[in-house]
Amino acid sequence: MDYFLLTGKITSKVELKSTDKKGKKIEYAYFTVLTDSRYKDKRGYYQRIWSWYNDARDLYQKNLKEGDHVRIEGYHSQNKQKETVFNATSVHLVSRPGTAQSENVEVQTNEKSEKNSEDENPLESEELTY
């Protein structure tokens, strides 16, 4: 597994889903981040960040908002289209626009939590739009 550490600005709503497109029960959260140049690919500097199961619920409950500047740690995987998928294991709020002071919001994941396999990845059947 390739691990990553990136910083960026959240550019979408943090979404929480409980089923995939086929109706299979699977909890996941995702959002889009405008990243620095190290992570540029065919989508430009925008990357979709995923979180799974209990970690997804924890992430969603932290109330991260569009415009928040975050630091994200996690690991890369690939989907069937050989695209890089960013899986978050820790998300830290660095700063929030309109606040005088940075907040320290952390989502620390449980190493033993279930991980989504390539076959179950909702990315496979979902067209990404930014």
From TrEMBL:
Residues 95-108 have a biased composition (Polar residues). Residues 109-118 have a biased composition (Basic and acidic residues). Residues 119-130 have a biased composition (Acidic residues). One of its GO terms (molecular function) is single-stranded DNA binding. Pfam families: SSB. Keywords: DNA-binding. Residues 95-130 are annotated as: Disordered. This is Single-stranded DNA-binding protein. It comes from Candidatus Onthovivens merdipullorum.
